[in-house]
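W.,

You were right to be curious about this one. When I first looked at the sequence I had no strong expectations either way, so I just let the prediction run and decided to look at it fresh. Below is the sequence, 211 residues in total, followed by the output.
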Amino acid sequence: MTFRRQYYYAWWIMRSGLISPRYYMTREGMTPSKIQYVGVWQWDAFFHALAYRHVDMKLAEDQLRLVLDHQRADGMLPDAVHDEGRCHSHAIPVDADVTKPPLIAWTALKLFEYSGHRDFLDEIYEPMCRWNQWWFEKNDDDHDGICQYNHPYSSGLDDSSLWDGGMPVESPDLNTYLCVQMDSLSRIARIIGQEAMRRCGPSGPRRSRTA
């Protein structure tokens, strides 16, 4: 009985958190809270999508599309999207771009494994590669192939003492996420008929079709 009540409460939250398309909210999306965290937050959206895949696959896929709708020209994805704007940067505690760790390809692959929607992967493959490319081009000051956080909020650990020494920080968690992202992108490339990527870094993805 305890688990049943928690189960239904969780789905009540998933339903009550939905906000309708409006202005910058290009699609129906879930906000973590209608009191303080109004808007769609990138990292949260990926995990919300994993839940929605069990009841409404389009709604699940739209959580990713909504974020990608606001991809910056250089490939960056915003930290959050609100009906009246987007959050690409914060000036506190340092003035820098703010995003979240790269989990979108991993999420997309999880959705595909449940739905089999290959067209969805084909639709978002190149934007995901440009997102990956942004990490290597804009977040590796010493060009050693190890990416860095330029703002603590990008980590999801906003007020952690980990950042007391200042920014940027070459963090093992970020580079682990990037390894997962690269593996997921490679698997997606094979699914949609692309050559498995040799590289999705500064030079970008290679789009040659397989024979």
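Here's what jumped out at me. The longest strand covers residues 80-82. And, maybe more interesting for your project: The two ends are 55 Å apart (CA to CA).

Coffee later to discuss?

I.
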